[in-house]
Each structure stands twice: as C-alpha cells, then as structure tokens.
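Q: Could you predict the 3D structure of Extended synaptotagmin-1?
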Amino acid sequence: MHAVRVGRQPPAGSGGSMERSPGEGSSPNPEDPNSRPMDQPSVPSDPPDHPPAAHSKPDQGSGVPPAGPGAAGEALAVLTSFGRRLLVLVPVYLAGAAGLSVGFVLFGLALYLGWRRVREEKERSLRAARQLLDDEERLTAKTLYLSHRELPAWVSFPDVEKAEWLNKIVAQVWPFLGQYMEKLLAETVAPAVRGSNPHLQTFTFTRVELGEKPLRIIGVKVHPSQRKEQILLDLNVSYVGDVQIDVEVKKYFCKAGIKGMQLHGILRVILEPLVGDIPIVGAVSMFFIRRPTLDINWTGMTNLLDIPGVSSLSDTMIMDSIAAFLVLPNRLLVPLVPDLHDVAQLRSPLPRGIIRVHLLAARGLSSKDKYVKGLIEGKSDPYAIVRVGTQTFCSRVIDEELNPQWGETYEVMVHEVPGQEIEVEVFDKDPDKDDFLGRMKLDVGRVLQAGVLDEWFPLQGGQGQVHLRLEWLSLLPDAEKLEQVLQWNRGITSRPEPPSAAILVVYLDRGQDLPLKKGNKEPNPMVQLSIQDVTQESKAVYNTNSPVWEEAFRFFLQDPRSQELDVQVKDDSRALTLGSLTLPLARLLTAPELTLDQWFQLSGSGLNSRLYMKLVMRILYLDSSEICFPTVPGTPSVWDMDNESPQKGSSVDAPPRPCHTTPDSQFGTENVLRIHVLEAQDLIAKDRFLGGLVKGKSDPYVKLKLAGRSFRSRVVREDLNPRWNEVFEVIVTSIPGQELDVEVFDKDLDKDDFLGRCKVSLTTVLNSGFLDEWLTLEDVPSGRLHLRLERLTPRPTAAELEEVLQVNNLIQTHKSAELAAALLSVYLERADDLPLRKGTKPPSPYATVTVGETSHKTKAIPQTSAPVWDESASFLIRKPHTESLELQVRGEGTGALGSLSLPLSEILKADRLCLDRWFPLANGQGQVLLRVQLGILVSQHSGVEAHSHSHSHSSSSLSEEPELLGGLAHVTSSAPELRHRLTHGDSPLEAPIGPLGQVKLTVWYYSEERKLVSIVHSCRALRQNGRDLPDPYVSLLLLPDKNRGTKRKTSQKKRTLSPEFSERFEWELPQDEALRRKLDISVKSNSSFMSRERELLGKVQLDLAEIDLSQGAAQWYDLMDDKDKGSS
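A: Sure. Here are the predicted structure tokens for Extended synaptotagmin-1:
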C-alpha cells in the first residue's frame, strides 16, 4: 500500500498551522514584512522549539492538537510523561539483573545522548532553513547577518538574478512531480532493488510524500558562451523539504525511511545543441559543478545513522552516490528531439583540458602541536589535499615542519570553464583529529587564460601561503605531437606518478549476443576496462545478453605507443567471464582524428559476441613560450622543490654490481612443437533428426592440450571425413612424461558429443624431431586422425631468417594463425636505482614483459628499489624485423616506475642474436639487467622441400650467386632443400626493367593442400599516365575460366609507382589440372573516384606448364601491353 500526500492545502478557515508554500497566492508587500494578501488566511509559523514534522494531524488539515476534556486530559498527559521517564530506568534494571558492569549502562546512556544531540541539531537546522525560505527578505534584513550562513547569490553578485517566477512554476508543478516520483520508485526502483538481492524480495515503498515545501531556486546566472550552439545556466538551488519516504522489508520486519532533508548547491544546466526547428533545444544536460551539501533526518531503523560518527559517514556515502550520478564529470542528459546525433558525446563530452598541478611547498604555517598541556609549543605535521570536483589527491606528510616542501605533481581533468575550482586544503596530521591550517580556491578559468600560473597563494582560515605551479594542457588530435610531448615529459621530475602524454576516453555503448549462463539463463553483464594497473568498471545490466551501458571512462596514458586497453566482460558476480578484448593503443595513433568508432569482436566468447565502443585519444600539449624543459632525461626540472635525495650507500659496503646476467642452465633450451592437424576419417555420426529416426552426420572439431596450453580447431559442418589443415605452435621443454592430449568432438547447440581421443608422447617427437601418423581414436567404435608433429630447434643465426619467412609464407593457410619464425627467450634478473615511493619509501616493484599480445608478469618484491626477480619467459615471434619487446616496471599501489622498448631488429644485429646488459628505463629513473636472445625456427619438413629434390641445381650455379637473398651463401648443409627452392629473381645480374614496370610473384603448387598458391609481393617502376600518380592493384585470373570463382584481386594502394602488397591467393584444384591452366596477371588503377572504369597499367600471362611449380620462388616479371602478354 502506498500513501501519497503532496501539496495538500488546508481547508478554508481551518486556522491550521500548516506552513504556506512560498509560491502560492500573491506575494506580500516587500516593504511591509507583516503584510499578507487579503484573500489568504493568516498562517502562524512553527513554534521555535518544535519541529514542523511533529504536528499532529487528526483531520489532515489542522496542526492544532485536540484539546483534552479539561483536567482529565492534563492528568493523562502527566501520566504519559511519567511513564516515558520510567521506561528509561528499564535498561538499568535489566543490566543490574544480568550482573553487568555499570560501564555498559553509562556507554548506552552516552550513545543515546549523542544520538539525541545530533537529532536535535538536524531538526534545529531544518527549522531555521524552512523559516529562511518562508520569508527570505524579512529574515535577510533581520537575522541573516547575525548568523554564519552565506548570503543568497543574488544579494552578493549583480549578475545573478532572482527567479521568483520560476519558483512559482516549480510550486505549481510540485504535486505532479510527487506523483511521478511515486510511480518511479514503485515501478522502477523497487523492482530493481528486489532483483538485486534475494534477501530484498519483499522490499517495498510504503509511503512517498514530497511534502508541501518545493525546491527553491535562489538565483540564476546566465554565462555568455563562446559556442553559439550552447546556452549555460547556473541555478543556485536550495531544497529544505518535509519529504517523507518509508520503506519496508516485510520478510525481516524491517522499516526505515527519511523524514525531512536539506540539499544546497549550484546546478548547471546546459541547453545544447540549439537546432533550427521546434523545440529549438536538442537536449538538456544537468549536473552539479561541485558536491552539494546534504543533511538528512532518518526514521525507523535508519535512526541508527544519526549516532555520532555514523551520521557524517552515512551522509558522505549518500553524497558519493549522488556524485556518481549528478556531479562532474557525470551528468544527466534529457534528449528533447528524436534521433539526436552523438548522444554519447553530449552525455560524456571530452574534457575542456587538463591542469597539471605542481604542489611545490608552503611557508609560514601555524603551529598546532602542543606539549605538556600547551606549555610547550611545537610545530605541525602538514599535508595537503588537492581537489577539483570529484578528483581528490592527498600529499605525503612532512613531520615537524612549518615550511614544508612536497614537490608532488597531480593531473586533473577540467570539464567546465567557468565554474570549476582548484581547492587546496592544508592540515596538521594528528593521531585523533587533524587540525585545519587553511585553504585556497582558484577558478580554473585563470589557468586557462594564463597557460602557466606559478604563484604563492595565501591560505584562508589560517596563516601562511602555499606554492603552486599550474599548467594548462590542451587536448590535440595530432599524433605528430606525441614524440615532442614524450621528450618534454622525460625532463620532468614527477611524483608520485610520471607525467601523462595523452588521455583516452572510452565510450562504452552496448554489447550484442553475449553468451548465456548455465541453464540458458540471461547474464547480468558488466565490463572491466584496464590499462596497466588502472581498472574501471561499468554498471551491471540485469537479465540480458545484449546490454546497453552508455557509459564513459577516462584514462591517463604515459606512453600510448606501448600501452594496451584490456576489456573484460563479466557477469556481475565477477566469477563468469563472458568475453575479452585486448586493443593496442598504437592503433589509435594511426586512426583518423585518433578515434575508433566501431564494433569490436570479443574473444573467448560467442561467435557473434561483440561490443560497440568509441575510443578517443588526445595528446596533452602545453602551448606556452614560458615553459622550458630540460632535454637530458633525468635532469631535475626548474620547479622541483624537493632537495632531499636518497642517500647512496658506500661503495665499500655495497657488493659490486654484476655486468651480465647469470641464468640457470635450462634457460634458452626450449623447443617449439609445430602441430599440423590435417584430417580425420570414419568418424561416428552423432547428429539425429526427427527424434532419432533420421541419422545425420557430425560437425567435428579437435581440441589439443599440451604444456598447460589449449587449442581448438574450426568446426567442419556435416562431414565424417573432415579436413582441417590447421597448424598450432606451442613452446615445450624436455621435461619427461609430457603428452599431447587430442580429443575430437561433435559441435552441438547444447552439449558437444565425444568422438574419440588419442595421446602422443612428447618424448618420442622431441627425440625423432618429426612424426607423421594416422592415430586411431580411442573410446569410440571407429575413427582415426592424421597428425603431423615437428620439433623446431631455435638456431642463433640470422642467416636463415629470410628463407624461413618465405617458407612460412608459402605453407601458411587461411585457417591458421601466422607461423612463428623465431623464438625469443627473455631472462629478467634484477633492477637498480628505481624511484622511491612518495619521495622516501621504497616501492614494491614488479615487471611486465610484453611481446605482441603475450605478456609475462613477475612477482612483486616488497619494499626495495633494487629488486631481484630472477625470472624468465619465452615468446613466439612471427615478424622479427617489426616486433618489439615492451617492459614495464611498476610498484604495487604506486604506479609506473619506468619502461623499456626494445625493437627485435636490434637483437638481429647482435652477435649470436643475444643481448646481455643493463638497459636504462624511460619515463623514470633506474635500470634493469636483462638477457634477450633470439633463435630462428628452421623447418626440415615444411612440404616445400618434398618437390625440390626432383630439380637439380649444380653447386657451381649456387656459388656463382653468393648474394642470393642476402644470406644464401651461409645456408648450412642441414637444409639443402632451401637452397634448391630459391631462385635467381633477386640476383644482381638480373635483366633491366621493362618500360611498363615489373610485378613480383611467387607461384607454387602446395601438394599437401592440393592447391595452387600465388603470392603477389610488389610492383616497381610502374608507368605514370597523366599528372597524378596511379592507385594500383593487381588482378589475377586463372584461364581459361573467366568467372568470379577463379578471379582474385589485391587491395588498392594509393598514389604510388612501387606498391607493396604481400598478399596470398589460392585455387583448389589437382596438380595435373593446374599444369593445363594459364595465370593472367593485370596491374590496374582506378580512373577516377566517380568512375567504374579501370586503367590498365600492364599485364603478364604465365603458362603454368612452363613453370616449375615445385620451387615456390619469388620472381620479377616484366609488364606488357594488352597486345603482348608474354612472360619474362
């Protein structure tokens, strides 16, 4: 049952004591405080010592308690009062009967008196606020100057206007707003509460009354906006209401509620965008610029929240909830027109800028510490709190100092200019309650105007000054500025966090087709977004696999070139992962406007599971001629006020620092096992239709488990003799007893059916180096599986790398991941001279080593700036020339301590492909002792060599071309097939280039796949027709067929005469048929943007019968006109 009473008026002539709504009737004469409208009855105010909510209301209209029948009524009141006081003695009697100490009674009495005091203070404050709002002008002249309350904004500031007309409208609307609130709480909030916890299934609102006191707008200020499509309003709102909201959980006989509250603050309203159609305003955004003040009177069980100590805590928790919804950077958006463009941008716009706050020092602080009962005056232990909106930072404590030097740096996001303020409060740290030493406030608009502001600011409410350096950082969508910003940041000494080079704003919009929970139940998805050790969480959306979040998240980035965004979609219990996504932030640096706005496919999730997100990166740029950064990393900056440095230990006492690592004997002995899942035969049929009457086939796939890793092949539909032809690679050690577990399953909608298993001893493969067998599937009536296993032993020489890359390119299948060309082994021994935490305390450092999408995290070493990790990791490398090793050193709870980026191309230049030395850390101080070594993975059984033996090239022909592919002369005898496979295409004795240019191709028949393979590498010296460069692409056609089934086409390259493609194409056909075909290659360019015509730059036609398809070699071919299509 819901009781709603909003805005009820007393009957005419009732003479009740109900207070007048401030907006009803005509306004009283401002010159006569006692004048009232003739058509309104006189309404007496509340007695000064009784709260308004305490009126008894026998007839709902009168506030006068009913008179008793003479003396009998007075006697009853006396007896009632005596009985209440007698009840106070009951706890004392019970404590004595139970044999408890008198201390329990005194503690209970103190607790009750404290609760009573807090309660009376709240009621007194509520009465004063109501009285102020009832007759604001009279009390302003009579009593306001005698109190500590601030003047209304319209009294102090001429640009703030009164809006009594707006208050009258609010008063008129207030009862209907109460009806809406009742529906909202009963139909939306209550079901959400009941669904959030099984213990709250009987939760209900029993009473919802907004009361007769509406929200009042004390003043309105309109800001002249620089943007023509935006209107800014600041409303000084004050709500002193007799609201009453009661809730009940019937299952536990629990009742609670609110009876009266106050809320005061500045509410900013933004009308944006302005459109040229009705209703002119596209949307309304509302938020509090600063946290409003809140005071609540509790009823029922929530009376316990008025206990001293708990009262302020409860109000703070509720204010935190309001701040998470309606205080910057959060805002409430109400669209007024349908299909509003870029709602997410309006709901969570990019910050206006970033302010870097250098909290340098303070001087002349007051002394708060006293000793010997105040006879001896000490100093203070100052610390500072820096606050901008909801962003709060606390400095370290400087003991016994009236002129402290902190030397700390913080970065804050600024969303509204004007409006937001930088606030610094200084306190003296004490064991009980910290003493206030003073505060300063500064509008962020001053920093925006100055660019750099370096001043001593006086402290209000105390004595002394605080030294701040404030820098305004603009947000630029220009990746070219990043290197300059990173160079600047290397010269900044920053504590406790290194300076940021960019920010990332992630707009999480919605998800689609997330996997269901067990029992096909809808999940309650939420999202965790992490960049290094900073994690933010979205709200949970209940009972849906296509949730809509519409939330924004903001991150500071130290170096976006090496950082990644990790996205985890989980059920709200955090136990079930619904999908994940890892996105290197370097992708944004090449995106237009540093923005990605698209769907992202989730891994470890459903086939169609994805997230729609918009990611916006901005570079933080300090545009000021006053700033001068040191160019040498590690050089102290000109504003670094902390002259305390950690004491270096004596060289006599300290052990000598090692020059090289000392890994154990097992380091670098790993091998790579290449697992080729080819096909299966005679699998059992598991699919049944029509209740089992019709027998189908199976949809088989393979699961592999080895060395703690799991792999899974694709599903082949409706086939009992499937062919997968997929390759998997795993790093293995020579530990005996390891086995490769292989299981085959039939994919079904509910539970996958078992089709058999087999095991292969890893020792057998490692000893023989190669295994190619049909394995019988166990635990099933029939079926066998064809596997090919090869051990790849890393070789410490780069001479064979080009050949390995070419072989991998030839045998690569579309269904497998890119094959590894090398194995990287990393041994991280130790670090030295890491920065201290908060200036004096050593950190608890750990390291993260990342190559591509694979990472290894070390253990954390507690409380040291010279940790010894002694850990190793191995990584599969696919493109050694372009990949790099990224190392991040961080402290638990302290953030980044330094980083290292090592391109693997540097290791390729090193002797025996190994680097073993100290590496300096960037973005901080310190060094790490590291050993990194590469091993090239040469396959002896790739399938390319099988056809190479039929062609004999004399050794003399090889010796005549020692520079073949840059390393052929050094190919060892263990891989003679590689020499046979290579061609003279890149020989220095090659023929001159034709007039139309050349195209570089590899044409090869892959017998294991029964496919013709062609790789289009590049073109060079193409012909230019006209003034503009062409946009070339290559078209391939397998003649005599001219249908779409045999046509292939590369991507298009813009404005170049030497395009690089490196694209692979396949045709599935028998080898004898391939020899009867011709391959027609055409290099074309788009004529214009609007035209479908294609300009032919040249073509060549290859007769496959005249080419040795077993060699798989890259060769340059001259392009001809359409009339002459011969090959060269």
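Q: Anything worth pointing out?
A: Residues 102-134 form the longest helix (33 residues).
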